[in-house]
Amino acid sequence: MLAFPKALLTVSTAYNRHRTFFVLPRNGALPPPPHWFAASTHRHCRLMLGVYPSTCPFPRMFDHNAVAVTGLLVVAALAAEAALRLMAAGNGARGYVEIL
Amino acid sequence: MRPQIVQTASTEPGTHEPLSRSFTLLFALTSATAALTAVTTLFSATALAQAAATCACLCLALTTLATLPAAAAIVFPEAHRGREKTTAFVGGVAVVVAAIAAVRHFRVGLGVAELLPVGGVWLLGGLMGGGAVLLVAAAGRALRDLGGRGGAAVLAVAVLAGGGVAFLWTWVEPYVPLSRAGLASCCFRGCGCLAFLMAGWLPSCPCLLESPLCSRSPKHY
Asked: Is residue A79 a part of any domain in this protein?
């Protein structure tokens, strides 16, 4: 009797395992937390826990997300400069137009 | 004596709008891609993360599409050159298609493509084709006897810097196995196994590595 809820939970997780969206149980309850929840949380916290790969050529706080964001900032600044210069050039005609 | 109005040539109507529209679209799509990628990394592997990653890939595809009118407006900034702009747009589409075919044929950047949940090689080829289209447009603007060569040069520098940053990111990435699982953390494609969650430190989705953790056959590409 005590093993029944756990067995039900296991079956539900196994049923939803290969699905993109979880199938809600019929009684309206929320789906049970998946069994890998603690592991994935731990995965996202590992950097804050101090585990750091010795092969990383960058300093500790400059992980590859920081690399991507920095590159995105530089490229966006350069592209904005280019767009403003091109817009200032207008249609490319040099000098001034005299409207008589 | 007749009254005389002198104005700068760049204030001619119809010359700012295509460029400003297309570059606004490009910046908005880039920001949306970055925000959706950040959201994907914040969530652990759930359906929300997969939806955000799919939207990020959609934004990447739209970025590829948005480079084409930008390139057409760069090469032909005059308002009356509609036919040439259309020709440049079609040529840009041809360049993007050729880039996608080249990336698929020569298998460039598969390590980056496997991070994208939807259409990895196609999106990668499209982005590289978009960069090539912008480079060609900047070269064409510099070759034409028009103003705005400085802007074209800065745009070429920006595109080359983007390619350099992408190459640096790709080169650095295998040394940083910790946060590798960005978009791949929601890899539900193909086999649908969750083995990469149990072994988050694996270099990539184990379905691609055909590891014994995944019992079902991979169905990628």
From this structure: yes
**Residue A64: which domain range?**
59-90
d(CA B152, CA B130): 15
Tell me the per-residue pLDDT of B152-211, one tens digit each, with 9 for 90 and over: 999 999 999 999 988 887 776 666 544 444 434 434 434 444 444 444 433 444 444 444
Residue pLDDT, tens place only, B25-65: 999 999 998 888 777 766 655 667 777 778 888 999 999 99
Q: How far is A1 from chain B (nearest CA, A)?
A: 30
Which backbone phi and psi does A93 adopt, to 5 degrees? -70, 135
The answer to whether ipTM exceeds 0.90 is no
Inter-residue contact B209 to B191 (CB < 8 Å): no
Domain count across chain A: 1
Rg (CA), chain B: 21
Residues of chain A found within 8 Å of residue B41, distances taken between Cβ atoms: 65
A7 occurs within a structural domain: no
Q: Across the interface, which of A19, A79, A96 has its CB nearest the CB of B8? A: A96
The verdict on residue A95 lying in a domain is no
